[in-house]
C-alpha cells in the first residue's frame, strides 16, 4: 500500500511563550501543499527483522531507526503487534526546510498502517500517537487548513481557502536547526494575531502576517531574506519563510505568469497550485 506524504507551510508564526518544559507556545496556520514524498509498506513474512527501510531520492541524515517512519511503525507495533514490514521511502521533500517533511512521513505511516492492517484507530487517536513523534506531526492526520496553538498541537479548523493560488517554494542550501531557531527567539504576543490577519484578503497580509523566526534567522542566513525580497520583486502577493526555515514560499495570483528566476544549482525550487 502506498501513500504520498505532503508538506505544510506556515501562514504566520507567532512564538508567544517559553514553557517550563523548554518547548514554546506558538500560534500559526498550517496549510497543506502538494509537494510529496512517496511511502510504501509491504508485509515481509518469513523474516526475523521487524522492519527494513529502503530509502530513495534525497538523502536523510541518520540511521534507519532514527527515521520518523520507523519510529511511527515501532509505536504502532508496540500497541498492535504488527507483522514485519518492508518500508520504501522516496524523498522529494527537502529536510531542514520548515516544511514538516519528516513529520508528514510519520503521520502518513500511522495512517497507512491503520488502513493496511485495518486497526480501526480513530483520527483523534492517530493524532494523539502523532503528537508523540513531533510537534507538528498531528496536523498531517487530518491534513486540512488548521489554526494551531500550544506547542503546535492544539488544533481548530480555519475557514480559509487559497484554492487556485500558485505557490513557489525556494529552499537554499542552508540548514536551519529548529531547536536553535527556537533558542534565538524572544517570545512575545503579536501585534496582529494570526487568526485575525488570516481573515483579511491575501493582498493585505504582507506587513501583518509575520513569521517570528524571520527576525532571528535572516541575520544569520541573509540569503533566506534575499529570496523573500526576490519573490516580492517578481510579483508575489505574499511571501514568507515557512516554519523555522530555510525554505521561503511566495503566493502568486491564480492567473499570474510565474517568474523564471535562476536560483542557482544548489537551490531547491517547487512550483504548484494550491487546493
Ligand atoms: C517550527 C514549526 O515548524 C512550526 O510549524 C514546528 O513547530 C516544528 O515542529 P517539529 O519540527 O515537529 O519540532 P520537533 O521535532 O518536535 O522539535 C524540535 C525542537 O524544537 C523546539 N521546539 C519545537 C516546537 C515547539 N513548539 N517549541 C520548541 O521549542 C524544541 O527544542 C525541540 O526539541
Ligand atoms: N522521514 C524523514 N524525512 C526527513 N527527515 C527525517 C525523517 N526522519 C527523521 N528525520 C530527521 O528529522 C530532521 C528534520 O527533518 P524535517 O524534514 O522534518 O525538517 P523540517 O522541514 O525542518 O521540519 P519542521 O517544519 O517540522 O521543522 C532531519 O534532519 C532528519 O535527520
Automatic annotation (TrEMBL):
Alphabetized Gene3D superfamilies for the sequence: 3.30.230.10, GHMP kinase, C-terminal domain
Reaction(s) the record says it catalyses: 4-CDP-2-C-methyl-D-erythritol + ATP = 4-CDP-2-C-methyl-D-erythritol 2-phosphate + ADP + H(+)
Pathways involved: Isoprenoid biosynthesis; isopentenyl diphosphate biosynthesis via DXP pathway; isopentenyl diphosphate from 1-deoxy-D-xylulose 5-phosphate: step 3/6
SUPFAM superfamilies: GHMP Kinase, C-terminal domain, Ribosomal protein S5 domain 2-like
The keyword Ribonucleoprotein appears for this protein: no
EC annotation from Swiss-Prot or TrEMBL: 2.7.1.148
UniProt KW ATP-binding keyword: yes
GO MF entries: 4-(cytidine 5'-diphospho)-2-C-methyl-D-erythritol kinase activity
Alphabetized Pfam families for the sequence: GHMP_kinases_C, GHMP_kinases_N
Domain GHMP kinase N-terminal: 67-141
Residues annotated as the enzyme's active site: 8, 136
Name assigned to this protein: 4-diphosphocytidyl-2-C-methyl-D-erythritol kinase
Organism whose genome encodes this protein: Bacteroides difficilis
Amino acid at each position: 500500500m502506498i501513500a504520498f506524504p505532503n508538506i505544510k507551510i506556515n501562514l504566520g508564526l507567532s512564538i508567544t511563550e517559553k514553557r517550563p518544559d523548554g518547548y514554546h507556545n506558538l500560534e500559526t496556520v498550517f496549510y497543506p501543499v502538494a509537494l510529496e514524498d512517496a511511502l510504501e509498506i509491504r508485509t515481509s513474512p518469513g523474516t526475523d527483522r521487524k522492519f527494513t527501510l529502503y530509502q530513495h531520492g534525497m538523502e536523510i541524515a541518520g540511521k534507519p531507526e532514527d527515521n520518523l517512519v520507523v519510529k511511527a511503525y515501532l509505536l504502532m507495533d508496540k500497541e498492535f503487534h504488527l507483522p514485519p514490514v518492508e518500508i520504501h521511502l522516496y524523498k522529494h521533500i527537502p529536510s531542514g526546510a520548515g516544511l514538516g517533511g519528516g513529520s508528514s512521513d510519520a503521520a502518513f505511516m500511522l495512517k497507512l498502517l491503520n488502513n493496511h492492517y485495518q486497526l480501526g484507530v480513530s483520527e483523534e487517536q492517530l493524532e494523539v500517537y502523532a503528537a508523540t513523534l513531533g510537534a507538528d506531526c498531528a496536523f498531517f492526520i487530518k491534513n486540512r487548513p488548521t489554526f494551531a496553538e500550544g506547542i503546535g498541537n492544539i488544533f481548530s479548523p480555519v475557514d480559509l481557502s487559497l484554492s487556485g493560488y500558485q505557490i513557489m517554494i525556494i529552499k537554499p542550501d542552508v540548514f536551519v536547526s529548529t531547536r536553535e531557531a527556537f533558542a534565538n527567539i524572544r517570545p512575545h504576543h503579536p501585534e496582529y494575531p494570526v487568526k485575525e490577519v488570516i481573515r483579511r484578503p491575501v493582498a493585505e497580509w504582507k506587513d501583518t502576517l509575520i513569521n517570528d523566526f524571520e527576525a532571528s534567522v535572516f541575520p544569520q542566513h541573509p540569503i533566506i531574506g534575499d529570496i523573500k525580497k526576490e519573490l516580492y520583486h517578481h510579483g508575489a502577493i505574499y511571501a514568507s519563510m515557512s516554519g523555522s526555515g530555510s525554505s521561503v514560499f511566495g503566493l502568486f495570483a491564480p492567473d499570474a505568469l510565474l517568474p523564471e528566476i535562476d536560483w542557482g544549482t544548489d537551490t531547491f525550487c517547487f512550483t504548484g497550485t494550491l487546493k
